[in-house]
Write a structure and sequence with these properties.
Layout: E1 5-9, E2 30-31, E3 34-35, H1 36-46, E4 51-56, H2 61-67, H3 71-79, H4 83-94, E5 97-102, H5 109-115, H6 117-120, E6 125-128, E7 132-135, H7 140-151, E8 154-160, E9 170-176, E10 181-189, E11 200-202, E12 205-208, H8 211-218, H9 229-238, E13 242-246, E14 250-253, H10 257-270, H11 275-287
Parallel strand pairs: 1-4, 1-6, 4-5, 8-13
Antiparallel strand pairs: 2-3, 6-12, 7-14, 8-11, 8-12, 9-10, 9-11, 10-13
Helix pairs in contact: 3-4, 5-9, 8-9, 10-11
The chain binds 1-O-phosphono-alpha-D-glucopyranose (G1P).
1-O-phosphono-alpha-D-glucopyranose is lined by residues 109, 129, 131-132, 169-170, 189, 201-204, 228-230.
C-alpha cells in the first residue's frame, strides 16, 4: 500500500537553541537559505508523500505561513522581474498539503504522534523528526516506504552509532534478516551505554501501520515522564511486528549546535553556487 501521509512533530520548544528560539520556532531556523522544516517536507515530497500533518503548538504559526501563499511577495517579485525567486517562492507554497493539528500540552513524542490520529485515519503513514537531516541519494523516507511496500510491516530507519552515544536515541535489537534489514525484537529509549542491547539507533524516520495509535493510547509515561513513541514501538515489535532498516545516507543532528554547524558547512559545500568560496572560507578559518 502506498504511503500518502506523513506526520512531522513540530511542537517542541527548541530549548537547545535558546535564545534563537525565543520568538522563532526551531524548525524555521535555516540551513543556508532554507528553513530546516522545508528540507524535511522536501524529503517527503521527493518520496511521493504530499499530505503533511504538522503537529504544531502555540507560537509556531510561522511554519504554516512559510508553506502558505505570499501573494504580496509574489506580486513584488513579478513586478521586479525576479522570476527565479518567484519560482522558488511559489514552489514552497504548492509542494505539499499542510494540515496542522495542535498538541495542547508537551507530553512527549508518542503523544505528538497520537495527536495526528484523526488526520491520518486508518492507513499506514510516515513520521519524520525535524531535528534530523538526512542527505541521501534516495530520500531516507523513500528507502523505508520501499521496505514497507515489500514487506507490509512497520519499519524504522536505523544507523550504527558509537556505544557512548546510544543514550541519545531509541535503540533497537533483533535478528538480521538481510544485509540492511533487522527483525526487531526489542526497542528501548535512550539506554545506558553499559546495558544497551545494540548500537542500532533510530534518528527519527519511521513508516508505521495505524496499529501504533491503539498502542500509543495504552502507553503510560516512560523515560522523562513523557509518552514515548519508542515504548509503543516495542509493543508493536512484540505484536504485529517491526523491521529496522540500515538506511543509506549521511545524517546530521541539526538539533545540536555542532551538528547544526556541520550541516551548514556540508550543505554549503554541496551547493555549486557556494562551494568554491565556502571551501576557501573554511580553509582560511582553519588556518587562523
Ligand atoms: C527522539 C526519540 C528517540 C529518537 C530521537 C532521534 O528523542 O524519542 O527515540 O532516537 O528522537 O532524534 P529526542 O531527541 O526528541 O529526545
Amino acid at each position: 500500500m502506498q504511503i500518502r501521509k506523513a506526520v512531522i512533530p513540530a511542537a517542541g520548544l527548541g530549548t537547545r537553541f535558546l535564545p534563537a528560539t525565543k520568538a522563532i520556532p526551531k524548525e524555521m531556523i535555516p540551513i543556508i537559505d532554507k528553513p530546516m522544516i522545508q528540507y524535511i517536507v522536501e524529503e517527503c515530497v521527493d518520496a511521493g508523500i504530499r499530505d503533511i500533518i504538522l503537529v504544531s503548538a502555540e507560537g509556531k504559526e510561522s511554519i504554516e505561513n512559510h508553506f502558505g501563499r505570499s501573494a504580496g511577495l509574489e506580486e513584488f517579485l513579478r513586478s521586479k522581474g525576479k522570476f527565479d525567486l518567484l519560482k522558488i517562492v511559489e514552489r514552497v507554497s504548492s509542494m505539499a498539503n499542510i494540515i496542522t493539528v495542535h498538541q495542547k500540552s508537551p507530553m512527549g513524542l508518542g503523544h505528538a504522534v497520537l495527536t495526528a490520529r484523526a488526520a491520518v485515519g486508518n492507513e499506514p503513514f510516515a513520521v519524520l523528526l525535524g531535528d534530523d537531516l538526512i542527505d541521501a541519494p534516495v530520500p531516507c523516507i523513500r528507502q523505508l516506504t520501499q521496505v514497507f511496500e515489500r514487506h507490509g510491516t512497520s519499519v524504522i530507519g536505523v544507523m550504527e552509532v558509537p556505544r557512548e552515544d546510544v543514550s541519545k536515541y531509541g535503540i533497537v535489537s533483533g535478528k538480521k534478516i538481510s544485509d540492511r534489514l533487522i527483525n526487531v525484537d526489542l526497542m528501548v529509549e535512550k539506554p545506558d551505554p553499559a546495558s544497551s542491547p545494540s548500537r542500532y539507533a533510530c534518528p527519527g524516520r519511521y513508516v508505521l501501520t495505524p496499529k501504533i495509535f491503539d498502542l500509543l493510547e495504552k502507553t503510560k509515561p516512560g523515560k522523562s515522564g513523557e509518552i514515548q513513541l519508542t515504548d509503543a514501538l516495542a509493543l508493536l515489535a512484540a505484536g504485529e511486528g517491526l523491521l529496522a532498516y540500515l538506511f543509506e545516507g549521511t545524517r546530521y543532528d541539526t538539533g545540536d549546535k555542532l551538528g547544526y554547524l556541520e550541516a551548514t558547512a556540508a550543505f554549503a559545500l554541496k551547493r555549486p553556487d557556494l562551494a568554491p568560496e565556502a571551501r576557501r572560507i573554511l580553509a582560511r578559518l582553519l588556518e587562523s
